[in-house]
Amino acid sequence: MRLLHTSDWHLGQHFFGKSRQHEHAAFLHWLLAQVQQHAIDAVIVAGDVFDTASPPSHAREAYHQLVLDMHDAGAQLVVLGGNHDSPAVLGESRQLLARLHTRVVPSLDGAAAEHVLALRRRDGSTGALLCAIPFIRAREVRQSLPGQEAEAARQDLVAGIAGHYAAIHAAAVALRDEEGLQVPIVATGHLTCVGAKRSESVREIYVGALSAFPADAFPPADYIALGHIHRPLKVGGAEHIRYCGSPIALGFDELDSPKQVLLVELDADGLQAVTPLPVPVFQPLRRISTPLAGLERALAEVGAGLQPGQVAWLELEVVDDAFLPDLPARVAALLEGLPLEVLRLRRRRASQPALAPALQSLDELDPQEVFARRLAAEDGLDADQQQALQGCFAQVLATVQEGGA
Q1: Which pLDDT score is estimated for 138?
Q2: Calcineurin-like phosphoesterase domain location, by residue (predicted)?
Q3: How large is the greatest C-alpha to C-alpha distance in the chain, in angstroms?
Q4: Domains in the chain, ordered, with CATH?
Q5: Which residues of the chain have pLDDT under 50?
Q6: Pairing between β-strand 241-243 and β-strand 270-278 as defined by DSSP bridges
Q7: Single pTM value for the model
Q8: b/e per residue, 101-115, with b = 16+ CB within 10 A?
Q9: Residue 309 pairs with which residues in a beta bridge?
Q10: What are the b/e assignments for 309-346, b being 16+ CB within 10 Å?
C-alpha cells in the first residue's frame, strides 16, 4: 500500500496582500504528477485544505479540480477537516465527492465506526484501514466548567481527545478482525504534539487549555499522519508519527524548513518505509536583515541569485540607529530594476535585539500576545487577576475562532 501524506495547503491564502493562487496551482499539478509517477494508491490530506472558513471561488475550484484529477489518476483521496476549515463548507459536497473516490471527513460527528475507512489499492482491494480523525474541537470532547483550574481543563481535554482516538482505533481493530483482514491501521490528526514548533502562520487551536498533545496518548496505529504544524517532524523521534509540513512556505519564518510530502509504504506487517518527496519552490521568498550601509549590496545579491523570470518576495529589516523617515522611499529607489518586491519592511535599532517587542507589528503577534501586553500596561491588576482575565479571554477567543471554522 502506497500513500501520500500531505497537509496544510491553505488554499486561498493571501500573503501580505499577495495571492498564492499560482503557487497552489503549481503544487497541485506537481502532486498529481507524483501520484502518477509513484503509482500512489491513496492521498491523505491531514487538515487545513483551505485557509479560511469562507474560501474564495478559485480555491474551491482548485480543490474540486484536484478531486477530478485524482479520480482520473486512479488514486483514492481522503480529506480531513482542519482548524482553518469550515465543517459546513467541506461537508456540503462530501456526498457528491464520494462518487468520485474521495472521502471527506469535516468534523468528529458520528459514531466511532463511521470514522473507520477502507483505503483501497489500485486493484480495489483493501490495503489499510484508516482512523479518519479530523481536527477535534474542544467543545466536541469536553464541557467548559466555570472556575475549573487550568491543569484540570488540560487533563480533561487530553483525556477527551485520547478517548476518541482509542474508540476509533478499537472500531478499526474490530472491523479488521470481523472481516479477517491482514492489513495495517493508519490514523490521522490535526493538532499540536509535544515537541512540535509552531511557525508564525500557525494558529493555536486549544487556546488556554492545551499547548501540546502527548505522543504516548495516541493508539498503537502503524502510521499516524498529522497536520497543523507547517514544518516536517517525527514526533518524539518516532518513525510512524509524523508531520509532513505545509507544501509552500506560509510565513517568512518557514524558509529554513524543507517543504515536502511523504510517501508512506505499508504492508500486512505494518510500516515499511517513509520517503520525503521534496516540493519545488514555486515562489521565491527571502529574508534580509542588514545595516543601512549594506542595503544596496544585500538587495543586489538576492536579485542576482534568482532564476530568469523570477521575482522574490522579501521580508526586509534595516538595522540602523538613525531616524529614517524616508526609509520606504530609499528602499523603493534601490529596488528599481531588481526582480524583488518587499512585502514586509521594518527598521530595528542596532542596540535592540531582533524582534524587540516595541518593533513587532500586529501581524507578528497572536491575539493572546496582544491581550497579554495590554494587561501588562494596565495598572492595579495583580498576577491572579491577570491570569483570570487571560483565561476569560482565551475562552472567548476559542469560541470566536471555532465559530469561524
Answers
A1: 79
A2: 1-101
A3: 74
A4: 2-278 (3.60.21.10), 285-403 (3.30.160.720)
A5: 206-209, 356-359
A6: unpaired
A7: 0.85
A8: bbbbbbbbeeebeeb
A9: none
A10: eeebbbbbbbbbeeeeeebeeebeebbeebbbebebeb
